[in-house]
C-alpha cells in the first residue's frame, strides 16, 4: 500500500506540470489568434455593392490588388465555375488562365457570352502541355502580388482577402 502512494505522487506532480504547460500553450494560441484577427478585412469590404464592384477593375491600383494565375487542362466546366466564384474576391485585379489543352480552342467566347464580369479574365493558350507553363512571364501581369492556383482548388473569398492582407503587411515590413 505504501508503494502505491509513492507511485501516485509523481503522477500527480507530472499531471500538474502537463496541465500548466497545456494552459500556457492554449493562452499563447489565443493571443496569436487574436492578433491575426486584427489583420482580417472589414465586413464592409466583403459586401461591396455590385455597382462599385463592376468598376473595381478599372479604378483599382495595381499596388492594392493581386493577380490570380490558374493553369487548367481538360476541365472547362470546373474552370467556368471557379472563374465565376473568383469574380467576388476583393482586391483581385485580373485572372490569367493558362490553357494547356493543346490544339483546342479556349473557352474565352463562352466565358464572354455569360455576361460582363467585374474582374477581367485572360486566356493564354499554350503550345505544349507542361506544368511549368504557369511560371512564365506574362506581359499582362501588372501587380506585385501573384497567386498561382490549380484548377481544382476552390479558395473562399474571405481566405483570399485575408492572405492578401497578410502579404501586404509582410511586403511593407520587407520594404522597410
Secondary-structure map with pairings?
Blueprint lengths: L1 H36 L5 H4 L3 H5 L1 H4 L6 E7 L3 H11 L5 E8 L8 H6 L7 E5 L19 E6 L6 H19 L1
Parallel strand pairs: 1-2, 1-4, 2-3
Structure description:
This protein is α/β, with parallel strands linked by helices and 176 residues long. Helix content is 48%, strand content 15%. It has a 4-stranded parallel beta sheet, covered by helices on one side. Mean pLDDT is 79; it is low at 45-59.
Which structural class do you get from the secondary structure elements? alpha/beta
| Number of helical regions | 7
Shape assignment: elongated
Query: How much beta, percentage-wise?
Result: 5-15%
State the end-to-end CA separation: 67 Å
Report Rg: 24 Å
N-to-C SSE string, H for helix and E for strand: HHHHEHEHEEH
Largest beta-sheet details: 4 strands, parallel
What is the percent of helical residues? 40-55%
Read across the widest sheet, the strand sequence of neighbours is: 3-2-1-4
Counting DSSP E segments of at least 2 residues, the number of strands comes to: 4
Amino acid at each position: 500500500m505504501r508503494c502505491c502512494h509513492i507511485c501516485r505522487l509523481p503522477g500527480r506532480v507530472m499531471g500538474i506540470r502537463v496541465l500548466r504547460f497545456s494552459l500556457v500553450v492554449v493562452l499563447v494560441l489565443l493571443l496569436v489568434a487574436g492578433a491575426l484577427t486584427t489583420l482580417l478585412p472589414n465586413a464592409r469590404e466583403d459586401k461591396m455593392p455590385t455597382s462599385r464592384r463592376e468598376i473595381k477593375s478599372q479604378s483599382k491600383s495595381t499596388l492594392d490588388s493581386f493577380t490570380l494565375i490558374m493553369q487548367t487542362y481538360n476541365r472547362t466546366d470546373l474552370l467556368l465555375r471557379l472563374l465565376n466564384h473568383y469574380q467576388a474576391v476583393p482586391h483581385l485585379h485580373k485572372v490569367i488562365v493558362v490553357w494547356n489543352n493543346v490544339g483546342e480552342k479556349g473557352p474565352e467566347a463562352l466565358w464572354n457570352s455569360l455576361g460582363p464580369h467585374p474582374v477581367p479574365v485572360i486566356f493564354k493558350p499554350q503550345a505544349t502541355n507542361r506544368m511549368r507553363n504557369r511560371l512564365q512571364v506574362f506581359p499582362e501581369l501588372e501587380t506585385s502580388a501573384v497567386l498561382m492556383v490549380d484548377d481544382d482548388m476552390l479558395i473562399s473569398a474571405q481566405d483570399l482577402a485575408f492572405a492578401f492582407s497578410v502579404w501586404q503587411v509582410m511586403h511593407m515590413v520587407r520594404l522597410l
